[in-house]
# Entry
Amino acid sequence: MADSGKSALLVAANRGPVSIATGAGGKEEVRRGGGGLVSGMVSALSEVGGLWVCAALSDRERTAARRAPEGHLAEAGYDTGGLDVRMLPLDPSTFSRAYNGIANSTIWFVHHLLYDSANTPVFDAGWRRLWGAYERYNRSFADALAAEAAPGAKVMVQDYHLDLVPRQLRERRDDLRIAHFTHTPWAPPEQYAMLPEAVGREMLTGLLGADHLGFHCARWADAFLACCADLLGADVDRSARTVRWEGRTVQVGLHPLGTAGQEMRERAGQDDVEAGVAHLRDLLGDRKVIARVDRTELSKNIVRGLRAYRELLRSRPEWHGRVVHVAYAYPSRTDLPEYREYTAAVQRVGREIEQEFGTDDWDPLLLEVANDYPASLAALRMADVLLVNPVRDGMNLVAKEGVVLSERECAVVLSRDAGVADEYAPDALMVNPYDVTETAEALHTALSMPLPERQDRRKRLLAAATALPPADWFRQQLDALD
Amino acid sequence: MADSGKSALLVAANRGPVSIATGAGGKEEVRRGGGGLVSGMVSALSEVGGLWVCAALSDRERTAARRAPEGHLAEAGYDTGGLDVRMLPLDPSTFSRAYNGIANSTIWFVHHLLYDSANTPVFDAGWRRLWGAYERYNRSFADALAAEAAPGAKVMVQDYHLDLVPRQLRERRDDLRIAHFTHTPWAPPEQYAMLPEAVGREMLTGLLGADHLGFHCARWADAFLACCADLLGADVDRSARTVRWEGRTVQVGLHPLGTAGQEMRERAGQDDVEAGVAHLRDLLGDRKVIARVDRTELSKNIVRGLRAYRELLRSRPEWHGRVVHVAYAYPSRTDLPEYREYTAAVQRVGREIEQEFGTDDWDPLLLEVANDYPASLAALRMADVLLVNPVRDGMNLVAKEGVVLSERECAVVLSRDAGVADEYAPDALMVNPYDVTETAEALHTALSMPLPERQDRRKRLLAAATALPPADWFRQQLDALD
# Structure
C-alpha cells in the first residue's frame, strides 16, 4: 500500500479475484478466482501492493463486506492471498437491477446485436428505474475508488458493468490516471442508437472520462470511435484513434488479450484432466474429434454449430462412424428465460442428431451441458478440429486456449465476427456464423486437411494465441497511462 | 403497343394492377388494384400503350394466365381497363418459396433488421433450395420482359421481389434501359453481410444490371452504396451517388414517393368513409384522437406504440377521459407464425390497457384488427395526433395520407427510422422507436400543442406529403433513363 493507506494502482471490476462461499458445514470459505486474466492482474497488483475493488455478489459476501473495515477483506482476516480486496456491499436490488437488468441485458445485448428488434428492447419507465440502479452501482465504485486512490494513482476499470465509472471518478479526482477496458464487442452506430439518446450519450461520455480506453481488436475500437463521432459529434481522429472531448484527448488502444501458454498446459496436464482424456480415448477410439467449449450463451451460436454438424453428416456421409462432435456447453445466466430456452434448443437439436445418425456402434455427438472444467480441457486436448462460431464475441479465449492445448494439430473453424478473427485469419477457416452450409463445408475442409498444412497453420495460430498473455496485456495498458 | 407487338415501356412487379378472383356464384371477377402507386403507374403506361408483367398469385390466376395467349389477359377477354397485362403462371411451389421463403422472409427481414440473431437467420441447405426458387422466379420475369420489350424500351422493375431481374434482363437484352426501385429500407453493410456471401453479391450485382436504381431517401440509397463499396469492392462515388460496375456507370437516385392529395381527399369524402366518420364522432364525442393505421407487420411497432400510450395514461393522468387511441392494425402475412404471434401480442397489450384504464364512461382504446379501408380513412380524418413509429420503414405512406386527410390539423409523432423522416423532420415530433418513454412524452407534447403551431407545422408537412405524387414519381424515373 502507498502512503497513508492509499493505493497507487487499483483495479475495479464487478467480480473480485476471490469469492466467499458457504462451504461444508455452513462454514465460510474463501475461493480464489480461476482464469488467466484474473491471475495476470493479481500478480501485477501484488507487485505494487495495489487494491482490487469489486461488488459483493451474494448475501454471504454482502455480510462479509459489511463486517470488514471499509470492506477490506484481508483486514477482516479473510485469506485473499496477500492481495488487498475491497468488496462493496451494494443493496441487493440495486445490484440485481444493474447487473441483470442493464449490464447483462441491455448493454450485453446491444453490443452483441442480440435484440429481436420487433419485440426487444423496450425502453420504458420500468427500464429507466433499472438504469437508475446502474448509475448508482457505478457511483458506488467511483466513490470507493476516489476514497482509496493515492494522488496520481492508476485506476484500471474493467468492462461493460462499469462504463460510467471513468467520468464519475474524474469528477471526484482529476489527479488520477484512468484506463477502461471493454471485453465485449462494440455495436456499430446504427445498433448503438437503439439506446435512448441520453443513455447512449451517458455511456460514451462515461467512458470518455478515462485517459485510455482498451478494446480487443480494431473492429470494436473503430465502432466505438464511430459512435463518438456520429452520436456525440466528438472530434475523432480515426487513424490516430483519439477522441478530443471536453478539452482532453482520450487514447483508444488495441490490446488483444492472449493466453498464457505454459500455465494452460500445466493446468491441462493435471490428474483430473488426464482422467478426462483417458475417458474420451476409451469412448472415441481413433475417431476424429470436432470440439467446442462455450458457456450456453445466446451469442455463442451453439445451435447453428450443431445444425452445421448435422448438415456435414447429411452432405458428406463418408464421415459417418469416423467423427464425433464433442460439445461442452456449460450453463450460463439460467435466471434469464431467453437463456433457458436457448439451452433447451441446444439439447433438442442434439437429440435430433443422435436420432438421425446414431447407430449401435457410433454416437455422433457427445453433448455436455454440465459445468466440468477439467473435462472441457480434456476435449480441447483431443481436438482435431476446434469449432468457434459465435454470432459476435469480444475476443473468444477458447479459440486461443484450444490451439495451445490440442495434441492433434487442430484446425480451427472460426466465425469472422469473433474478435480473435483479426489475429487468426487466414490461418483459421473463416465462416459467416449465420451460414450453416458454409460452416458445414469448413468442418469438412478442416477434417480433410493434410497434417503438414495443419501443422503449418497451427504454428502461426499458436504464436498469435500466446502473443499477449494476461500479465503483458495488463502491463501494456499500465504503460499506456504513462 | 409498339411495332410488331413489342412494348416501349414495361413495368415488372410481383403484384399486378388487376387481380382475378372468384366472385359470387363461382364466377370469375376482375378487380382493379387500389392505391395511388398503382394508378400512377397505370396512367403512365396507358399513355404509351405499355405492358405490365406480374405473377399469378393464386390457382385461379394461374389458370387464367395459362389460358390467355402468352399470359396477356386483355387478349383473353379480361377487362383490364385497356391496359396490357401479362400474368406469369409460375409453378406454385416455386412462387411460394420465392415469395414467402425469400422475399418476405429473408430480404424483408434483413432490410428491416428484424432478425433475432441468436436464432435467425439460418442459411442451410434447405434455405438454399428456397434461394434457387427465387432465382427461377426472377428469371421468369427476365424471360418475359426480354420477349416483350421493343428495341431500346424502358423497363421499370419494382421492389425486393425482383432484385435479380435487372442483371438477368441485361444479359438477354443489352439494348434496354432498365430501372429498379426499392420500396423497402436498405440494410447497412454489417447487417447485409448476414447473408451468405455469394447471395449478398448476387443481389447487389443483380441490381447493378440496371441503369438507374431508385430509393425513397438518402439513408437507404447510401446504405446500398456502402454495401457496394464494402462487399463488392465496387468503385463508388458517394457524393455523385454512382457505382462503376463491369464497365458501366449505374446511377442511384432519390425518389421520395408522395401521395396524390386531391385523389386521397376525394376517396375519403365518399359515403362509406363519411359513415365511418359519423360513427367515430358518436363514439368519441369531443375527445382528442390519437390515430394509427398499419398492417400488423413486425416492423410497424404497434406493440411499443400501445405501450407508449399506456405510459402516457400512467404518467399524465390529466388525459384520462379526454383522449382515445384509435388503432387500425389490419391483418398481414397471417401464414407466418411470427406474424400471428405479433397480432396476439398487439391484442394482449390492448386488453391490458382497457382493463387498467377503461371506465363506464370512457374506452381509452379503439383497436381494430380487421381489414376496413373506409374505417381507417375515417380514423385519419379524425386524427388530432397521428402516430407513425415503425422500427424501420422504406417510406411509410400513411404518414403522408394522414397529414392530407386530417380535419383537425393533426400533429405527427414519427419514428426517426421511417424513410419519411428525411422530409418530415423537424415538423413532426421525432422519436426513437425503441424508446417508449420518449414516444409517450411526444404524444403528450402533440396532444398539448397549440392550434397555431399545429397549423404551421402541418402546412409544411402537407407540402412534403404531396411534393411527389405517384405519377410524378414514376415520370421522374422514366426521365432518369434518358
User: Anything to note?
Assistant: Chain A is about 45% helix and 20% strand. The longest strand of chain A covers residues 149-158. Chain A touches chain B at residues 113-119, 121-125, 127-128, 188, 190-191, 193-197, 298-299, 301, 303-304, 307-308, 311, 314-315, 338, 342, 345, 391-392, 432, 434-438 (CB under 8 Å). The mean pLDDT of chain A is 95.
